[in-house]
Design brief:
By secondary structure, the chain is α/β, with parallel strands linked by helices. The chain has a single domain, classed as Isochorismatase-like (Rossmann fold, 3-Layer(aba) Sandwich). Helices cover about 20% and strands about 25% of the residues. The protein has helices at about 10-15, 30-40, 150-165, 180-195, and strands spanning about 5-10, 45-50, 70-75, 75-80, 105-110, 140-150, 165-175, 195-199. The strands form two sheets. The chain has a six-stranded parallel sheet. Strands 3-4 form a two-stranded antiparallel ribbon. α3 links the parallel β6 (about 140-150) and β7 (about 165-175). α3 (about 150-165) packs parallel to α4 (about 180-195). The two termini are about 20 Å apart.
């Protein structure tokens, strides 16, 4: 079974204290991710990158009278609104400066369509529109996940990978959540579905 590492959204807006959606401790997982990449354990290393246009529907600033963490109804269900983040070609969208990006085999950019958000590395939030990654990992692979945020994009990616028929592990020590409570709940949910949770 081929084994691959998928690094979720290790970008400045999440992992840098000056980021628009900084997750506390985000910068502390960069070195653990670098060590994983350098371990020689993986056949492929894939990184995802939130890559939003300025007019993205998930930005609270694009909805009159709304604020971050409000929830709205959209064509594919409920959508959490966020502070504007990971705007294409911005500092916030760039990978963290200490991340060893030279080790990536390739990058998957997600959330680039203005009218649909994308948490998962495999499918946008309608669960139909593909990022293309499922064509590579469509079943029978061993996939380890690390990155940000445990309770949103890591969780969505891991669950989709499992649904596609892969053996899935989340490396909790190389992940960080939006909140500690959210991360703990996400790990419990993933575990209950069959995702392996490793230190």
């Amino acid at each position: 079974m081929n084994k691959s590492l998928i690094i979720i959204d290790a970008q400045n807006d999440f992992a840098d204290p000056n980021g628009a959606l900084y997750c506390v401790g985000g910068e502390t997982i960069i070195e653990p991710i670098n060590r994983l990449m350098a371990s020689g354990e993986y056949d492929l290393i894939v990184a995802t990158q939130d890559w939003h246009p300025q007019n993205h529907l998930s930005f609270a600033a694009n909805h009159a009278g709304k604020k971050p963490l409000d929830i709205i109804d959209v064509s594919y269900g409920k959508q959490v609104l966020w502070a504007s983040h990971c705007v294409q070609d911005s500092f916030g969208a760039a990978f963290h400066s200490r991340l060893d990006t030279f080790r990536f085999n390739f990058i998957v950019r997600k959330g680039a369509r203005a009218q649909i958000d994308s948490y998962s590395a495999f499918f946008e939030n309608d669960k139909v529109t593909s990022t293309g990654l499922e064509r590579l990992f469509g079943g029978g692979y061993e996939l380890d996940f690390a990155g940000i945020a445990t309770d949103f994009c890591v969780k969505s990616s891991a669950i989709d990978a499992l649904r596609l028929g892969n053996k899935v592990s989340v490396l909790a020590g190389a992940c960080v959540g939006v909140t500690a409570e959210g991360a703990a709940n996400a790990l419990d949910e993933m575990r209950s579905l069959g995702v392996l949770i490793k230190p």
